[in-house]
Amino acid sequence: MKEITDQQRNCKHEAFQARVNVNRFEDTGLFMADVTVSCARCDLPFRFVGLEAGINFAQPLTSIDGLELHAPIEPETETQLRMAAHFTMPAIISGRH
After folding, report:
1. Residue 62 to residue 82: CA distance in whole angstroms
2. Which residue among 4, 26, 67, 91 has its CA within the 20 to 30 Å range from the CA of 44?
3. Which tens digits make up the pLDDT trace of 9-26?
């Protein structure tokens, strides 16, 4: 982990930038989006929380440090994962927003 600068420590992190790299795995028909997010003002990386580390074509996981999301993706016309999709709302966590 890089040392955090005073600028990063004092930043309110109000603007963001994201980088997405899409990988196509030859002869498999599978795709993976690798995503990183950082503050656009101070360049501090953001960590993805609540996910395990690794790579899996059935669910999103993160890099070992949590700074990169590995999310399986598919063309909209595919039905492999679409049928398994569902939506849930998290409970409000006290002190977090």
Report:
1. 21
2. 91
3. 889 999 999 999 999 998
Give the burial string for 57-89 (b: 16+ CB within 10 Å, else e).
eeebbbbeebbbbbbbbeeeeeeeeeeeeeeee
The token pair at 6 is 């005073």
The answer to whether the CB of 13 falls within 8 A of the CB of 44 is yes
Model's pTM, two decimal places? 0.77
pLDDT digits (tens, 9 = 90+) for 68-91: 999 999 988 876 655 566 667 777
Nearest to 55 by CA among 44, 39, 71: 71
* Residue ranges covered by each domain of the chain: 6-84
Q: Which two tokens stand for residue 60?
A: 């999103």
